[in-house]
What we know:
2 copies of one chain form a homodimer.
Chain A: E1 6-10, H1 14-26, E2 31-35, H2 39-47, E3 52-53, H3 57-61, E4 66-69, H4 76-83, E5 92-95, H5 101-110, E6 119-121, E7 142-145, H6 153-165, E8 169-172, H7 175-202, H8 208-213, H9 219-225, H10 230-239, H11 241-263, H12 267-276, H13 278-286
Parallel strand pairs in A: 1-2, 1-4, 2-3, 4-5, 7-8
Antiparallel strand pairs in A: 6-7
Amino acid sequence: MDNLRKLAIIGLGxxxxxxxxxxxxxxxxxxxSGYDTDEAVGARAAELELAKIVNSPEEAVADADLVILCVxxxxxxxxxxxxxxxxxxxxxxxxxxxxxxxxxxxxxRILPATRIVPAHPVAGTENSGPDAGFAALFHGRWxxxxxxxxxxxxxxxxxxxxxxxxxxxxxxxxxxHHDMVLAVTSHIPHLIAFTxxxxxxxxxxxxxxxxxxxxxxxxxxxxxxxxxxxxxxxxIFLANREAVLDTLQRFSEDLxxxxxxxxxxxxxxxxxxxxxxxxxxxxxxxxxQDTAAPDFGRVQG
Amino acid sequence: MDNLRKLAIIGLGxxxxxxxxxxxxxxxxxxxSGYDTDEAVGARAAELELAKIVNSPEEAVADADLVILCVxxxxxxxxxxxxxxxxxxxxxxxxxxxxxxxxxxxxxRILPATRIVPAHPVAGTENSGPDAGFAALFHGRWxxxxxxxxxxxxxxxxxxxxxxxxxxxxxxxxxxHHDMVLAVTSHIPHLIAFTxxxxxxxxxxxxxxxxxxxxxxxxxxxxxxxxxxxxxxxxIFLANREAVLDTLQRFSEDLxxxxxxxxxxxxxxxxxxxxxxxxxxxxxxxxxQDTAAPDFGRVQG
Lengths: 301, 301
């Protein structure tokens, strides 16, 4: 990565600020400039000394070898427009959006296609904003790159090395397949979590105070991801509409099957499904994608 | 609790073995006898010196002042029958089942109603068996008692003190209301988790290896509770059928609403729901029912 002297980060929330912190830690020779459309976020990032915070996207990307857009996927087109024409001719542009087909299309419509390498680090917490980031966020997590057919190999290689330097494992994927995979592993889980937390708040027979008190029975697990950024998630569902609706349809069918089994007192169907599901958790733990400690290693009480 | 000299625990899985460990720690003068219908479980509990392990339920409950049935809710009637006629006249019988109406009915059909105090400690992990238990499991968690109208006050008071000694907070509730509350805070979350993990394993477009690899996007959170005991959960859904189906219907309606909003690209509806849901998590953390650490305080990587 000798040819990466300056990195520009547009958007300084959880992911953008984590990238800034990680680069400071593992690639200290790279100059990092940062910009956020929200002035308060920019000011806080400056206080935290996350990067050289500047007052415009043009200033941030001037002379940058790599630009990473870390904004909600619905704001990618606007972010791309704000830097178009201000980039060095060979600057590489990437992003961290959780859906890729729409982002790829947005970027390729506005910027030179040879230098675009969309990316998605599959990592995060339920918290948002520049204070929530931390350098180790990407350690051992996967970062999926979805270059278009016009993207050149050198740009792809540089981005791969960049993410590996930050501790991530890198995979290259077609954007459409990415969107289907993430619909299952991320988008539908979030949609379901948001829904059940909403349902639980609105019941007539059960008070919200009771839902909170007795949440250790399982419900509290869902409240974590349902506390994630509303704007970010609104944008993801609109951007990955097709794959989300497709997977949701399958989930609803499977749920109806279990609903029917409960109604008909068909214990065998329930038992058979419940017996299959623990194997997946074992694999996730074995592959280092979750902790082996019971109850996520929560400190109780 | 001077009148509690001997405790019998029937069933030595996660909850039974945790009670045994907690009693050894905080009430060391109480004699604890234990029995499990599964001989291997009994042998392991003996190895772990969790209690005086005996070879029959009759032997376990002989002279016991308090008997706690720690078996799946579908086995409560059989467990009650196995001790009926063997109890001291004033022995108190309780349980730890996650649904209460059916268990109350089962116990009251078989045993003297004045001495029955059904209970549900809202605590657990995804692990099962005598090795999974630990003494601190009930610290700061709620234990719900659902005595019938015939139960006498002295029995209720003793059980309250017992659970408080183990570190739990105690609430008294009508069994029917308990079942509605727990349908929301525990049973439906488990049903949904089992379903989505099942759906994700069965998709044609996405390989199971991909689901595992990219699970840190949210999916892995659901795999924890979907790794819970299949027998225990089959029984809960059969026992709490009515409240589960009722809540499930509400959840499905709410999910359809969001599905429609995604289809119609109605970002406002999505944003409005997603903005409401983070308040509940804050309350759960404030009330000590979950950790404040991001990502459940998981140790990453």
